[in-house]
UniProtKB/TrEMBL annotation:
Predominant place of localization: cytoplasm
Domain Phosphoribosyltransferase, first and last residues per copy: 41-152
Pathway where this protein functions: Purine metabolism; AMP biosynthesis via salvage pathway; AMP from adenine: step 1/1
Cited function: Catalyzes a salvage reaction resulting in the formation of AMP, that is energically less costly than de novo synthesis.
GO biological process: adenine salvage; AMP salvage; purine ribonucleoside salvage
InterPro entries tied to this protein: Ade_phspho_trans (IPR005764), PRTase-like (IPR029057), PRTase_dom (IPR000836), UPRTase/APRTase (IPR050054)
UniProt-recorded name of the protein: adenine phosphoribosyltransferase
Gene3D superfamilies in UniProt: 3.40.50.2020
Source organism (scientific name): freshwater metagenome
Length: 175
């Protein structure tokens, strides 16, 4: 299956979970084995040798763990506040519909490790920005950020590139 055919399975749900939000529902893509494999292999093609794969709760976990498996590398969860059991570091951020806090285990990343960071959607870029800061505060180096989709008109990718000029940011489609 071609990448564009896989991405065409993403379904837009207008006014969910609030009026004016165009929610990007990835479940039809995940339910299609060929599409899920195509996206996993595409994401894995961006990895450097020996990279760790970090995913953002919750939908980022789905792709990040599949990519980690594909690369035979480790998976690092970046979770919402209060979910990780060991000592954490936290980073708060604003998003398209509300505010939130992300956390990572303080010892999740070996200092100097290269990290491939994955989430499903870039809207304002706040979530990925907070995750990059957490990885950097752990001593990791974010080599590449990957998302399936970037919401048009919210300038999320542009904001990330301005704030983190050394980090590569790739989304497979703008919608
Ligand atoms: P942001 O921090 O504004 O870039 O928002 C990105 C995060 O919120 C991602 O983890 C997405 O899962 C979720 N998100 C934000 N907006 C949408 C949307 N329109 N459709 C689906 N997920 C979204």
């Amino acid at each position: 299956m071609q990448i564009d055919d896989a991405l065409s399975l993403i379904r837009e749900i207008p006014d969910y979970p609030k009026p004016s939000i165009r929610f990007q529902d990835i479940t039809p893509l995940l339910a299609n084995a060929e599409a899920f494999t195509t996206i996993t292999k595409k994401f894995a093609s961006f990895a450097e040798q020996g990279t760790l794969v970090a995913g953002i709760e919750a939908r980022g976990f789905i792709f990040a763990s599949a990519v980690a498996h594909e690369l035979n590398s480790g998976f690092i969860p970046i979770r919402k506040a209060g979910k990780l059991p060991h000592r954490t570091i936290s980073q708060s951020y604003g998003l398209e519909y509300g505010d939130d806090t992300l956390e990572i285990h303080i010892d999740a990343i070996t200092p100097g490790a290269s990290v491939l960071l994955i989430d499903d959607v870039i809207a304002t870029g706040g979530t990925i920005g907070a995750a990059i800061e957490l990885i950097q505060r752990c001593g990791g180096r974010v080599a590449h950020v990957l998302a399936l989709l970037e919401i048009d008109g919210l300038s999320g990718k542009q904001r990330l590139l301005e704030k983190f000029p050394t980090v590569n940011v790739t989304s497979l489609v703008v919608s």
